[in-house]
């Protein structure tokens, strides 16, 4: 069994003050992927930079206080890579991946933590988001070919993809038809990625077909959390054989608004690898 959790922490130091550390101490996850860490490693206290029982790897953004991704793994990886070979984006704190070894029975696994840019419709930010998406798609294609070809094994890219794929993935879809995160071009990009020929699978949707949500992000404004007016933008995207081994997928939604330590909730999947 392998359990992987992904969560946008909305500032790791802030999350630690609100309950992230007790959650980390209690989690049964073998791998935890973090996004929007918003800190240099030397700005993190020891319990966040190098927590006991974990091998921790961080990819901060060159722009201080922005973005940043991390991976905690209970097993030592055989390789760690920051970025995906992009001149424009590799220093932006948006992607890190690790290779975890197999155990003789199960094949090795590459796990990535992704924080895809937010974008803003009809602005340069949206154009930059599209540039990122185009480059990252090439990386996803190469990663899939590597693990399913000569290298063998599986691949899993977790994170905040900042795109709601279908109407079932956000409560107020009618009011967001022209909003970044639900634009036709973004949704078509995900549709193409998830085409059966590509070998990538949205694991949570596979295990929760035909339902609204389960949402993973709720605005802090108004009653969005209380009314479950959310977006499902945090994904586990897995190659075919790993996706087929997914047994359970849970969004760890806080019991109350006050108990939240991020505006996102952890998305946890257990795989029977």
From TrEMBL:
Domain Endonuclease/exonuclease/phosphatase, first and last residues per copy: 6-264
Residues reported to bind Mg(2+): 8, 36, 160, 162, 263-264
Active site: 115, 160, 264
A biological process from GO: DNA repair
MF term (GO), any: double-stranded DNA 3'-5' DNA exonuclease activity
Key words of the record: Hydrolase, Magnesium, Manganese, Metal-binding
Cofactor binding, per record: Probably binds two magnesium or manganese ions per subunit.
Matching InterPro entries: AP_endonuc_1, Endo/exonu/phosph_ase_sf, Endo/exonuclease/phosphatase, ExoIII-like
UniProt xrefs under Gene3D superfamilies: Endonuclease/exonuclease/phosphatase (3.60.10.10)
Site (Interaction with DNA substrate): 264
Matches recorded under Pfam families: Exo_endo_phos (PF03372)
Keyword Iron-sulfur: no
Sites annotated Transition state stabilizer: 162
Site positions per UniProt: Important for catalytic activity: 234
Swiss-Prot/TrEMBL cofactor(s): Mg(2+); Mn(2+)
PROSITE patterns named in the record: AP_NUCLEASE_F1_4
Family recorded in the similarity comment: Belongs to the DNA repair enzymes AP/ExoA family.
Protein name: Exodeoxyribonuclease-3
Species in which this protein is naturally found: Actinacidiphila paucisporea
